Amino acid sequence: MRAAPGGRHLVGIRHLVQSETDPAYLDRPDVRRGIAAVGAAGLVFDLLVRQHQLPMAARLAHDLPDVRFVLDHLGKPALGTPEFDNWKRDLRVLAEAPNTTAKVSGLTTEVPRSPWAVADLRPAVDHALDAFGPRRLMFGSDWPVSLLATSYARWVAAVTELLGDLDPTDRAAFWAGTARRCYRLAAS
Q1: Rounded Cα gap, residues 73 and 69, in angstroms
Q2: Could you tell me the pTM of the whole model?
Q3: Residue 80, by phi and psi: left (phi above 0), alpha (psi -120 to 50) or beta?
Q4: What is the pLDDT of residue 62?
Q5: What is the biggest distance separating any 2 CA atoms in the chain, rounded to whole angstroms?
Q6: What secondary structure letter does DSSP report for 26?
Q7: Which of 27, 62, 64, 167 counts the most CB atoms within 10 A of its CB?
């Protein structure tokens, strides 16, 4: 991939694990060898999983400490449902792996009702802040999928409101610093 046009810009690999039908997909030796190779190449592996796959993602992150992982969409929490407590537990286990960070993205499409409100998102974002800390979280848009539930401007405004209590250094890490560090991006 790096030999292809534009390959020098490659910083990570993302596989739609959420679509895999094998409930033990990330536990498979062949998959783990491939993910270890991603890490050995200096690339990040983005975890695009659903809530029920978080325990498998946590095992993977703990077992492959040399790979940098980014959890997309906070693992798609079941906002406003009884399953939310399971998500909280499983997210905390994943966050215990120091080689993980998470994107605050894609949450508006997980709210079980429409229209969504910032208050619907707060429990997930507050828990992620507690579990990962603000310097292991980063902004994500989930564009264009997010357009099913919100505009980019409304999403940015909601996230800004949700992070209102963070100090300026933590806010800077969330909005850019964590992504730069994790994906090894040059400052612009």
Answers
A1: 13
A2: 0.94
A3: left
A4: 98
A5: 47
A6: G
A7: 64
User: CA of 188: how far to CAs of 16, 85, 101, 131, 182, in Å?
Assistant: 29, 39, 22, 29, 15
Alpha helices in the chain (DSSP H): 29-40, 54-63, 84-95, 118-132, 152-162, 168-172, 178-183
Q: Using N-to-C axis directions, what is the helix angle for 118-132 and 84-95, rounded to 10°?
A: 30
Give dist(CA 91, CA 107) in Å, integer: 15
The pair phi, psi for residue 54, each rounded to 5°, is -60, -40
Q: Are 70 and 101 in contact (CB under 8 A)?
A: yes
The rounded distance, in Å, linking the Cα atoms of 16 and 4 is 22
- Cβ burial of 62 (10 Å; 0-12, 13-18, 19+) is middle
Share of the chain above pLDDT 90, in %: 85
3-class SS of residue 10: coil
DSSP characters for 103-119?
EE-S-GGG-SSSS--HH
Q: What single-letter amino acid sits at 66?
A: D
> What angle do helix axes 152-162 and 118-132 make, rounded to 10 degrees?
60
Tokens representing residue 130 in the block: 């507690």
pLDDT band for 139, please (50, 70, 90 cuts): very high
144 vs 151: CA distance, rounded Å: 9
